Amino acid sequence: MAMVKDIDVRGMQHCETTTLGVLLRHEGLDLSEPMLFGLGSGLSFIYWDSKGMGFPFLGGRIKPFELTRNLTAVLGLRLLVEETTSPRKAWQNVAAPIDAGRPVGLQLDSYHLDYFSTKVHFGGHVVAMYGYDEQDAYLVDTHPQGGAVSTSLAGLARARAERGPMTARHRSFTITAPSNLTSPQDRIIPAIKTCAHTFLNPPIANLGHRGIEKTAKQVPKWLQRSDNPGEDLPRAAVLMEMAGTGGALFRNLYRDFLAECAQLIDSSHLRIGHSLYAEAAALWTQVAALIATAGESGDAKNLMQAGSVLSELARIERDAMHALSML
After folding, report:
1. What is the DSSP string of 307-324?
2. The domain containing residue 148 runs over which residues?
3. Residue closest to 129 by CA, chosen among 109, 156, 155
4. Which tens digit of pLDDT belongs to each residue from 94-115?
5. With CB atoms counted within 10 Å of each terminal CB, which end of the chain scores lower, N or C?
6. What range(s) does the DUF4872 domain occupy (predicted)?
7. What is the pLDDT of residues 236-250, one digit of tens each?
8. Distance (Å, rounded) from C-alpha 292 to C-alpha 290?
9. 61 within domain boundaries
10. Last residue of some domain: 176, 196, 226?
C-alpha cells in the first residue's frame, strides 16, 4: 500500500479545479476554487451541433486541461505531463510519484469509475490520485461525487484507456512549486484580460459572445431538433446547472472570482464586470429552468423565452468582458 501523507481531500464543484486544489495545497498554495478557475482563464462559451450528434452541446469553459496549463503557466509552476499508449507505462507514471510522496492528476473517462453517480461517457474528467493498494485507487473527486473516494484498479485502468471525444492517452500530471513562487495577486489582471480578449474575439461564430447569440437563435428550435425532448432538454439543463459547472454554466464561479479580485484590486472596470456577471449568472440559471420546463411540458413558449434571455446574456457578457478588457 502506498499513500501520500497530509493530503487535503476537499472536493469542490468542478473536477479540474478540485484536482488543481489538491495538487497545489500539497505544494503549500491554498487558493479558492473561483480563484483557481479565474487565474486559469477558465470561462468561455461554446455551442456545438453536428449531424453525428444526438443533441447540441453547450459548454461554459475552455477545453479540458487548458485550465491546468493556463494556471500553472500564470503562476510559474512546473507542470510535468505524461501520456502513453501503454497501460503498463501509464501505471508506472502514476505509481512512481505517489511512491515518492506526491499526488498525481489524471484525465480519464468517468463512466468506468465505481463511485460515479451518473454513468455517462465523459473523457474530459479529471481527478487527483493520492494512494493505492492491491485492489483500489484512492482519489479526490468533486464534492457532489463524494470528495475522498476509491475505485478499483481495474476500473481505473479502463477509465484511463477509454478512447473517444475529449479523452487523452492515459494522461497523468504532477505540479511542483518553485521556491520563488509568483504572487497570485500579481497575475489576476493578466488572467482576466486574456479571458476577456478570447471571449470578445472568437475565431468562429460558435464561441464566446457570438456563440451565445447563435444559441439564442437555435434554442427555440430544440423541440424539433430532438428525437426525445422529454429527456434531451432536461439533461441539457442539468449539464448547465449541476454537472460540475458550479451552477449557471460556470458563471457563478467567475462571478465569485471577480468578487474576490475586487477585494484585492480597486478598479471600477472590475466592479462593473463583477456586477454584470452576477446578473448573467442568475439569468443562466433561469435559462436552464426554461429549457427543462420545455422538455417536460413540450411547450415551445419556454424555449422562445429562453432564446430572449440568451440574447440579453450575449449583450451582458459582451459588456462585462469589454469592461474587464480595460483593466
Report:
1. HHHHHHHHHHHHHHHHHH
2. 2-30+78-176
3. 156
4. 999 999 999 999 999 999 999 9
5. N
6. 155-324
7. 999 999 988 999 999
8. 5
9. no
10. 176
